[in-house]
Amino acid sequence: MSEGITSTDFQFKNQTGKYSGKVREVYYFGDKIAMIATDRISAFDVVLRQPIPYKGQVLNQLAAKFLNATSDIVPNWAESVPHPNVTIGKYCKPFKVEMVIRGYLAGHAWREYEEGKRSLCGNELPNGMSENQRLPCPLITPTIKAAKGHDEDISKDEIVKLDTVSESDYEKIEEYTYRLFERGTTIAKERGLILVDTKYEFGKYEDQIYLIDEVHTPDSSRYFYSNTYQEFFDQNKPQRQLSKEFVRQWLICEGFQGQKGQEIPEIDEDKINRISERYIELYENISGEKLVKAPYSNKLAEIKDSIMRFTAQ
Questions:
Q1: Dihedral sign of CA atoms 11, 15, 21, 23 in order
Q2: pLDDT tens-digit profile of 190-221?
């Protein structure tokens, strides 16, 4: 059977709470948090049953690299990475929107377009576009975090009207989103990749806006290989890509899109290993470094110890 961390159940000195998301588990210590990236995998806002080996390490280490590489644009929550699966930093009160930005018509945006929609989060799209076509300019298509089920598309005007984010704060995170995407695009290009789309999350700490959560990882972003993009686009062939989209496409073929009454399919051992290899491939392509796999033999104890050292400070 494949290895993987599916959950943690730690108790720490001075711990003030715990939250389990789709992939990450967050331990609260007043105004600080310790975030553990597990090996769970989600798609269509549903957590699949089997973990993906090394996925959590890939996400945590890539996020750390990109948080560091963008800290001159916007301050971020991360302060230390004491273990390949753990990041410790500031507890920021999150805005209830995710800032999705798209450079190409792909994934969810393409599925909406294919159904005949020409307005996406207040952005008007022309007729006659093709899947994976480059957009005239990057478009921000925010989503609002739903209490249950799928996050929902929302426009800037709706966000401000609902007072989800103040107009002044929204203008600032919009500016940050464009600048972060430009930086991510540049870094990807240097590595022979195209940053197709991604999402950013922001929050406040002591009334200052911070970039939070993960940045430019395969869970939050979609990448194409640049050397085959134009050829495959011209031939109307699926793009070679590094993202979770291949998992979503497999689920769609299995008749699952997270809708009520649909049963989550099992992932066999071969597919688990191939998904793991894809995550490692993205890490090594985008970072330019070999992933040094943290062994699973004592990983949970090492994760716990790394956080205990933080709480003892």
A1: negative
A2: 999 999 999 999 999 999 999 999 999 988 99
- HEC string of the chain equals CCCCCCCCCCCCCCCCEEEECCCEEEEEECCEEEEEECCCCEECCEECCCCCCCHHHHHHHHHHHHHHHCCCCCCECEEEEEECCEEEEECCEECCEEEEEEEECCHHHHHHHHCCCCEECCEECCCCCCCCCEEEEEEECCEECCCCCCCEECCHHHHHHCCCCCHHHHHHHHHHHHHHHHHHHHHHHHCCEEEEEEEEEEEEECCEEEEECCCCCCCCEEEEEHHHHHHHHHCCCCCCEECCHHHHHHHHHCCCCCCCCCCCCCCCHHHHHHHHHHHHHHHHHHHCCCCCCCCCCCHHHHHHHHHHHHHCC
Position 1 scores a pLDDT of 45
C-beta neighbour count of 214 within 10 angstroms: 26
Weakly modelled stretches of the chain, pLDDT under 50: 1
Compute the Cα dihedral for 105, 109, 114, 118 and give only its sign: negative
Q: pLDDT tens-digit profile of 103-132?
A: 999 989 999 999 999 999 999 999 999 999
Q: Which two tokens stand for residue 176?
A: 């940050």
Please give the Cα distance from 174 to 185 (Å, whole number). 17
Q: In sequence order, what are the residues at sequence separation of 6 or more whose Cβ sits closer than 8 angstroms to the Cβ of residue 310?
A: 29, 32, 34, 80, 82, 88
Look at residue 264 in the predicted model and tell me its pLDDT: 83
Tokens of 56: 């959590």
Rg (CA), the chain: 19
Please give the pLDDT value at position 2: 63
